[in-house]
Design a protein that fits this description.
mainly alpha, two-stranded antiparallel ribbon, 2 strands
């Protein structure tokens, strides 16, 4: 994994005290699954950022990269909790 991808994935956090340990964005109560559902529903980046002003463009990219890594299981690396 490239360094820029690794730093992007740092935005995805795992904390047992936040959303039962599900992958979230920057330790907020906003899960990767929620973001992917918004994108799958057809919302674009601008719409998401308008509706959720606490999110950043890099958060959206991090969720997509995380999903791509999960979908390509052979490239998964262990993530520290």
């Amino acid at each position: 994994m490239q360094t820029s991808q690794h730093s992007t994935l740092d935005r995805i956090t795992f904390n047992p005290a936040v959303c039962s340990g599900k992958p979230t964005i920057r330790n907020m109560r906003f899960t990767v699954a929620q973001m992917l559902e918004l994108l799958a529903s057809g919302m674009n980046n601008e719409e998401i950022l308008t509706d959720y002003p606490f999110l950043e463009t890099d958060d959206i990219q991090a969720c997509l990269l995380y999903a791509a890594q999960i979908a390509n299981a052979k490239s998964l690396l262990p993530l520290a909790a």
